């Protein structure tokens, strides 16, 4: 359990985070638009930047009062793009990183590197140079280097941004596997990633927490407020201008649009996570 307690971050007189409190467990998703404060909050959790106020507790122990070296042994952070030493083979990169992390025995280095590569399904790519890997493979190498020191908590910033559909699915499946042994925090503005992976969600906007709960609880925020209509393509511009449209789907009969309409809502419509997200943002 990670407890984020009233975290405040003020930068150049601008409040980036305003008394944010979270209870993090399982696979936790941070949702919010760009500039909501997600990355800043994750860097504070990882000890990469300081907070102006508040505390972070892991299993009841304060992380804000510990040295960064101690924090690094508990938490592993993977940024959006991991591309260290592009001209070196994967295995050599990981061996070097293992050495920097204090694993000096060569046999032990090879052992932990091979174990990490197996966990991220890259054993057969260990001979390739980093620059020869796809974006998804580079991120899996990034996870492998985190696993070298076996942290309890893994933190990912926009982990599937820029990946194609197949790589996104592989990455999601890998994170699910890792969640059996680690607490995982994911920051993303891609609602589908959060819906597929997360057991709990926090929604940030302009540095403030608007919602925290399960995916089903977020979906329920849109219950009783949605309607659907079947329209022709030439009608679409008018509907988008006049209605709060949240989804457009092509069908053989025309365009099926979903929109917010509390007065003419259809109770038979099952809300999706994106609907709940937008409902909370509208209520703000």
Q: Compute the average pLDDT.
A: 89
* The CATH H-level homologous superfamily of the largest domain: P-loop containing nucleotide triphosphate hydrolases
Gyration radius, to the nearest Å?
22 Å
Low-confidence stretches: none
- Neighbour order of strands in the largest sheet: 6-7-8-3-9-10
Which CATH first-tier class of the largest domain would you pick?
Answer: Alpha Beta
Give the SSE string: EEEHEEHEHHHEHEHEEHEHEEH
Number of strands: 13
Distance between the termini: 28 Å
Sum up the overall morphology in one term. globular
CATH architecture of the largest domain: 3-Layer(aba) Sandwich
Structural class: alpha/beta
Largest β sheet strand count, sense and barrel closure: 6 strands, mixed
Question: Count the helices. How many?
Answer: 10
Enter the CATH topology name of the largest domain: Rossmann fold
Question: Per DSSP, what share of the residues sits in E-state strands of 2 or more residues?
Answer: 25-35%
Please give the domain count.
2
Helix content: 25-40%
Describe this structure in words.
This protein folds into 2 domains: about 1-220, 3-Layer(aba) Sandwich (Rossmann fold); about 220-284, no CATH class. It has 10 helices and 13 strands. It has helices at about 40-45, 70, 90-100, 105-120, 135-145, 165-180, 190-195, 215-220, 235-240, 275-284, and strands spanning about 1-10, 15-25, 25-30, 55-60, 60, 75-80, 155, 185-190, 200-205, 210-215, 225-230, 245-250, 255-260. Helix 6 links the parallel strand 7 and strand 8 (about 185-190). Helix 3 crosses helix 4, helix 4 crosses helix 5 and helix 5 (about 135-145) packs parallel to helix 6 (about 165-180). The longest helix is centred in the middle third of the chain and has 14 residues, at about 105-120. The chain is globular and about 70 Å long.
């Amino acid at each position: 359990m990670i407890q984020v307690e009233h975290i405040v971050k003020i930068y150049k007189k601008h409040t980036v985070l305003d008394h944010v409190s979270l209870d993090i467990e399982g696979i936790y998703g941070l949702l919010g638009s760009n500039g909501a404060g997600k990355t800043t909050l994750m860097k504070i959790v990882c000890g990469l930047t300081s907070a102006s106020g508040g505390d972070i507790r892991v299993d009841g122990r304060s992380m804000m009062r510990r040295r960064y070296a101690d924090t690094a042994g508990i938490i592993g952070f993977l940024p959006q793009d991991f591309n260290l030493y592009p001209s070196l083979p994967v295995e050599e990169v990981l061996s070097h990183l293992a050495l920097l992390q204090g694993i000096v025995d060569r046999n032990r280095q090879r052992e932990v590197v091979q174990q990490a590569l197996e966990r991220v399904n890259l054993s057969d790519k260990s001979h390739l140079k980093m620059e020869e890997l796809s974006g998804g493979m580079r991120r899996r190498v990034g996870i492998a280097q985190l696993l070298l020191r076996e942290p309890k908590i893994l933190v990912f910033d926009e982990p599937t941004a820029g990946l194609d559909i197949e790589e996104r699915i592989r990455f999601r499946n890998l994170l699910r596997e890792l969640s059996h042994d680690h607490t995982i925090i994911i920051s993303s503005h891609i609602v589908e990633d959060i819906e597929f992976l997360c057991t709990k969600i926090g929604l940030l906007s302009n540095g403030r927490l608007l919602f925290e709960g399960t995916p089903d609880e977020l979906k329920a925020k849109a219950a009783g407020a949605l309607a659907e209509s079947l329209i022709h393509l030439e009608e679409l511009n008018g509907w988008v201008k006049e209605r709060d449209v949240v989804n457009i789907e092509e069908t053989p009969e025309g365009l099926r649009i979903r929109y917010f309409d509390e007065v003419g809502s259809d109770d038979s419509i099952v809300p999706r996570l994106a609907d709940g997200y937008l409902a909370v943002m509208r209520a703000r």
